[in-house]
Amino acid sequence: MNAVEIEEAISQLAEAPFDPEEFPFAFLEAFGEKSTTIKRLKQGATNASDLEGVLQRNKIHIKVCPQGEVTATLTALRESRATAKHKVKFILATDGQSFEAENLIEGETVACEYAAFSDHFGFFLPLAGITTVRQIRENAFDIKATSRLNRLYVELLKENPDWDTAEKREAFNHFMARLIFCFFAEDTNIFPVEGMFTSTVATMSAGDSSNTHEVLAEVFRSMATPLKKRSEAKIRKWADQFPYVNGGLFSGDDEVPHFSKIARSYLLHVGSLDWTKINPDIFGSMIQAVADDEERGALGMHYTSVPNILKVLNPLFLDDLREQLEAAGDNSRKLLNLRQRIAKIRVFDPACGSGNFLVIAYKEMRAIEAEINQRRGESDRQSDIPLTNFRGIEIRHFATEIARLALIIAEYQCDVLYRGPRLALAEFLPLKAENWIICGNALRLDWLSICPPTGTGVKLVADDLFSTPLDQTEIDFENEGGETYICGNPPYVGNTWQTSEQKRDINQLVNGRSSSTGFLDYVAGWFIKAAAWMKYAQGTAAFVSTNSICQGQSVSILWPILFESGCSIRFAYTSFKWANLASNNAGVTVVIVGIGTTSSKSCHLFTHDEDGSVSLRRGSVITPYLTIGSNILVKKQKKPISDLGIMEFGNKPSDGGNLLFSREEVASIGLTETQKRKFIRQIYGSSDFINGGSRFCLWIHDEDLQEAKAIPEISKRIEAVYRLRMASRDKGAQALAKRAHQLKLMRIAYKGTIVVPIHSSERRNYLPIGLIDNNSVITNAACGLYDAPLWNMALIASRLHLVWIATVCGKIKTDYRYSNTLGWNTFPVPKLTEKNKDDLTHCAEEILLAREHYFPATIADMYDPDRMDSEFPLVRAAHDRNDEVLERIYIGRRFKNDTERLEKLFEMYTKMTR
Fold first, then answer.
1. Cα three-residue angle 287-292-295, rounded to 5 degrees
2. Which of 84, 685, 738, 909 is 20–30 Å from 1 (CA)?
3. pTM across the whole model
4. 3-state helix vs strand vs coil in the chain, percent to 5
5. Dist. CA 393–CA 448, nearest whole Å
């Protein structure tokens, strides 16, 4: 379950009659506990409470108590031995009248009437595996409002199936935007009477909902009609009390969907919420999910935390503004210059979604401007920052509507905060009609027409604030000659999951500039477009991106294009988790990269240290791999640049499965032990080796072919391979049919093979490599060092090597993708002494012995990061020792973090390949 679904379930529980026996189980069920878990708790099998309550281990201890004993019961839960023994995170006590709870980890508490406990659902989100920022927990209104709006939306679609079509979708979304504005306006003094919209609908529409649509249509018509024209328009008296809103929000089509009794009830319920609590930072993303078919099933997953957004905006331009504010002090002239500068700044998000980045940028700039006005003694001064300086492109129509609405709400809230409600209201209505958020495909639109380098374009006023044709994109900036900052969180979409249209978008951008686009994520298109924009206009761009653009083969495709455009990296954040509100969602691993054409003495690199802290480092150049150094691109090498063993792919079967056997199939053939030793080898791919799988293959030398074919089952399989290879259109495969008794390659070690799986999980702290004997072989799903000295294994098993291949080889999906030519052959190693090699050989032996100690645990078991330290400490200790020995060879001490590791490796690579 996600946050919105949980809020809905908790609200329903709070509204239902209190059942003391069922409450604990209903509460847990509302947070997504499975029915089987609930059943076992009810039966007492897993209920560990010592107070006749309900205790779920590692989660919560709940007790329903007699009336008036809630506080005492909470104390008893806190002091309970079972609470401590089973590491409970929450305690909860209620008598159906009062409700108290405590987070034992953070020390926070909740105390309220029972009927109001649903308002605090965010407090308990960790029960559902949702670890989120404090801001969401403390301001849960946005999720509550989204949940209610979603119920209304779904119910209206049931009643009006014809509105659930492509032709009517924009009208329906526009209708929802109108409702959101009305709910906000009636609670924030924009409408003259508090609750005016909801009470009008409740009073004037029939209880059976038969005329609800007509009442809404009349209210909307009133707000679209100037006061002087209302008599002529014959606006009904009860609707005439609404102000003239304009801005196109209520103009155009007056059609309203029909309401059922349930839909009318939902409408009134939504209106009863306190909309003064709306947070436009979050709300736009939450509401976006209501009207998006593909995303409605993922309600609550759109929230982007303000701290994460500020990781983009602060180094992009906000930090500089704050530094200038600090430097200005109380100097009136300097403050005036800074205010004039801020008024000209343009912020452009070409993947703006529901406007989060634009809203945060606007609010932060208003805060700085307000401080300037206060220091100059002009606190009542109207803002010089125009909303039309905040431009956006978004491909989904409803999101563009919500982005504009969120900015309008943010402007009003800032005016209330900094200038007072009276002045804010006096200047809020009627809304302006400029349309500055464009609906379209950002990778196909001309960014210069939407965000021109100067304000010389023809100013167009749209008929409708929420509808703008693409030929009406040129709107003048109100203040000429300002700076432009491009920012956002574009869609990532790896190449594997891109639609044909998305692949076409990337191909058109890269065409003629690179020989390959096959490894570029969709987000790369925004960097290319930003670099193209900066050829004609000065500015800086910063985007959140998957870290793939700074890893693997994407680097050699994308970054030469950006460098050719004159761009370089001005600042960056190394990889971190960009989480959302989805239950049990660890978030995607991202980087933040800021690019620009202007030179600077110092670039800023924010690195994430192993203790979780963020360090700021400065340098003259940030590389495409997000290290301080020089702009070098790692390229494939045919042989190792260091004195290392030769690594080759394993044996590709090309057999249709006919040369491979399970253990049972080998037994069924009836071979003698001599025949098994002669014709059968154990074979490993990546998965087999990591997970302890057991497969076998035919291994027949040419001189033994006739003997092998005398065995019927083997002969049948050889014939099947022959037919398969001959049926191929590939001439190479047909030629291979001449030796249908063999794999395509026949590589095997005389003594042993160091196995390196090509694909392995990014969750592991070390690559899951190992050693096999000379009676075993590997498939082409693994690489091998055949008969190489064992100290080579110590290198591959190190954190140092993992960091290198994660960066230069990249990933497929979320797995490491190992490459011998790009990862091993390029790996820089200092010249090793015989003592170094002996020490590393001993380290490799210790790793192998530690694994042997835990037999029959698999590599997957031993290298599971959740189990390694607690269940397999000898393996962890062996790897720590290996890292200690190897890193001292490189720099005489342990590296502080992965960034330092990479920078040393790139420095060595540059020297070794110069």
1. 90
2. 84
3. 0.77
4. 50, 15, 40
5. 12
Helix/strand/coil for 106: coil
Burial of 831 per CB tally in 10 Å (0-12, 13-18, 19+): exposed
Over the stretch 77-95, which tens digit does the pLDDT of each residue have?
Answer: 999 999 999 999 999 999 9
- CA nearest to 823, candidates 846, 849, 798: 798
393: its two tokens: 């492109």
| Spatial separation of the C-alpha atoms in residues 873 and 283, rounded to whole Å | 46
Shortest CA distance to 321 belongs to which of 341, 349, 344, 347? 341
Compute the distance between CA of residue 644 and CA of residue 829 in angstroms, rounded to an integer: 9
Percentage of the chain with pLDDT > 70? 90
- Model confidence at 545, pLDDT cuts 50, 70, 90, reads very high
The answer to whether 594 touches 561, Cβ cutoff 8 Å, is no
Beta strands in 764-817 (DSSP E): 770-773, 776-778, 782-786, 811-812, 815-817
Residue 188 CB contacts under 8 Å (≥ 6 apart), including other chains: 275, 276, 412, 416
The sign of the torsion formed by the CA atoms of 79, 83, 87, 92 equals negative
Find the mean pLDDT for residues 782-795: 97
Q: What's the angle, vertex CA 291, arms to CA 285 and CA 297, rounded to 5?
A: 80
Measured at the CA of 550, the angle between CA 495 and CA 315, to 5 degrees, comes to 120
Burial, 161: exposed, middle or buried (Cβ in 10 Å; 0-12, 13-18, 19+)? Answer: exposed
**pLDDT over 70 at 610, yes or no:** no
For the residues 300-329, what does the mean pLDDT come to?
Answer: 86
CB 590 within 8 A of CB 314: no
807 three-class SS: helix
Confidence of residue 445 (pLDDT cuts 50, 70, 90): very high
Query: Which residue type, as a one-letter code, is found at position 753?
Result: T
- Range of lowest pLDDT (9-18, 370-379, 409-418, 463-472): 463-472
| Long-range pairs, 876-881, Cβ under 8 A, ≥24 | 877/850, 878/843, 878/846, 878/847, 878/849, 878/850, 879/765, 879/766, 879/797, 879/798, 879/799, 879/847, 881/843, 881/846
Coil, helix or strand at residue 742: coil
- For residues 659 and 647, the answer to whether their CB atoms sit within 8 Å is no
With a CB cutoff of 8 Å and minimum separation 6, the contacts of 209 are: 259, 260, 261, 263, 264
Q: Which residues contact 271 (CB under 8 A, 6 or more apart)?
A: 183, 186, 195, 197, 198, 201
Distance CA 839, CA 791 (A): 8
Distances from the Cα of 849 to the Cα of 57, 142, 773, 852, 877, angstroms: 36, 55, 15, 5, 12
- Per-residue H/E/C for 310-343: HHHHHHHHHHHHHHHHHHHCCCHHHHHHHHHHHH
For residue 431, the cross-strand partners are: 246
Q: Mean pLDDT across the stretch 700-720? A: 95
Q: At what angle do helices 421-428 and 397-419 cross, to 10 degrees?
A: 140
Encoding tokens for residue 795? 């290198």
pLDDT of residue 457: 43
What tokens does 719 get? 């014939």
Is the pLDDT assigned to residue 171 strictly greater than 50?
A: yes
Higher pLDDT, 740 or 464: 740
Q: Is the pLDDT of residue 901 over 60?
A: yes
Q: In which element (H, E) is residue 136 found?
A: helix 134-138
CA-CA-CA-CA torsion for 714, 715, 716, 717, nearest 10 degrees? 50
Q: Is the pLDDT of residue 292 over 60?
A: no
672-702 per-position pLDDT tens digit: 999 999 999 999 999 999 999 889 999 999 9
